[in-house]
Every structure is written in C-alpha cells, then in structure tokens.
Design goal:
The protein contains 8 helices and 12 strands. It is an alpha/beta fold. The chain is elongated and about 60 Å long. Helix 1 crosses helix 8, helix 4 packs parallel to helix 5 and helix 6 packs across helix 7. It has 2 domains: about 130 residues, Response regulator (Rossmann fold), CATH 3.40.50.2300; about 140 residues, Response regulator (Rossmann fold, 3-Layer(aba) Sandwich), CATH 3.40.50. The mean pLDDT is about 95.
Amino acid sequence: MPNDFHTIAVVSKLFSNNFVHEILHGIEPHLFKGPYEVNYYPTTGRTDFENDILKTILLERRADAMISISVPMESDLLESYKNAGIPVVFIEETVEGGHTVKVDNVKGSYMAVEHLIKQGRKKIGIISGEFLDKRTNANVVERLIGYRKAMEDYELEFDQKMVKHVAYYEFDEGVQRTKEFMAEYKDLDAIFCAAGDLVAMGAIEAIQQAGLDVPKDVAVVGYDDINVSEFTKPALTTVKQPLEKLGSEAFELAVRCINGQVGKDESRLIILDPKFIIRQSA
C-alpha cells in the first residue's frame, strides 16, 4: 500500500439500518477518487463499548481521521484525538472543538409539529432518542427544542410526560412506546417520531394493531425519509434529511483535515436544510 494512502475510521452504533446505509452511500463514491480506505467500527450503542472502541482507534493509531455517525464523544477524549493529529468529524452530534456536519434539527422538528397542529391535532406525543450522561447528543436536544417551540408558539401545553425515549431507533421500540402512549392517553391524536422513520413505522404498526386508523385516529410523522418510507401503508409523512449529502460533506471535510486545509485548532460546522415530505400518514 502506498505511503500516502490514508485510512478513515467510520464509527456508528449500528451499520445495519437504512439511516446509516444512506449516509454511507454518500461516503463510498469518494473512495474511488483518491488514496483513501474506510474501516467500519460498530459500537452496538453500549457506552462502555463505544468508549473502548474510540480509545483503541486513538491509542493504536488505526486511522488518519474519524467520521462519527451519531456517536458522541467526551470533550477530553476529543482533545486527545486533536493532540494526536487525528481529526474527528461528527455527523449529527456537536462536541465543542470538533467538526460537525448536521441538518437543522430545530427547523425540521418544528415543521413536523406545526404541520400536525395545523391539521387540528392537539394531543401530540413525541418519541425521541435518549439523553446520554456526560456526552452531548445534540440531535435529541434540538429536535425536542423544535417540538416544544412549535407547541408553545401555537399555545398548546408542553407536557414532559408526552415525551418518550428510545435507545436504538428501531421498529420494535416504536411499537412499544406507542402502545404506552395509547394506554396512558385515550385522547392521543398524533405522534411525532423524532427518533426516525423506523420508529414511526413501529408506531403505525401499534396503532393499526389497536384497531385504529392512521391518520384518521392518530397521525404519525417520522424523521429522515429513508428509502422505504414512501412504501409503508399508509405512506409515511416525514422530515427529509439529505443523508447522502451528510456522508459526502463529512468525508470531504475529513479529507481536507488530513491534507492540512483545515487547521488542527479549527472547528467547522456545516448545517444542511431539512425538507418536509407530506404523504398519507399525516
């Protein structure tokens, strides 16, 4: 292998979901354009395992740069990466001093909830990602901010009990959290699945299992617009994130860092715009 061949580590909780697949579709075409290879590191979402992997990549110098997909990092560990000359580009997460490529989560969430309110929905639950101790998880925080701001702007009460969390952003979690919502709130008329489209598909499944109609009885909005969202029954209304562009921008930024075009002490922030996609579920 040539000496100027560079390795980029890509870290994610899982690589088996559509969200990550579409980000990778934005990364992989770049591998044919230069002396780069990518190594993939799944963390399974376990905080202890994530920290072990992140420290191993650093201590064993396994990469010239890292792209972290929705995996936050403690600030002192990021500082160690910077001191070692290994730039880190975060997709979705924001860590002080690091590079970030993200979509405007507040805007996307606000659009989703505003759409539901304008349809006359008043009891709107949200299924969100988890908060993680000692580490940022900016997308979770920002989507909750957008949800709360829309509710308050339209003079609807914000109720913390209408916020439920999931750990892995999976279909089964959407089913379970929606069943909990329906058991607790008989007047529930909408669910915003800020944790993603797979969770929204689980929500639809739970609502239909209960003999209710989507969207007549309970409307459902997802997040991401993964490539199967338009094929659900009913087709999923969702916030579209430009996932391939997220991957492409992150890779290009990592390469600029490797090549010295971005200084070690600089931090770059790239924010992309979401788009609201109206289909049949809301």
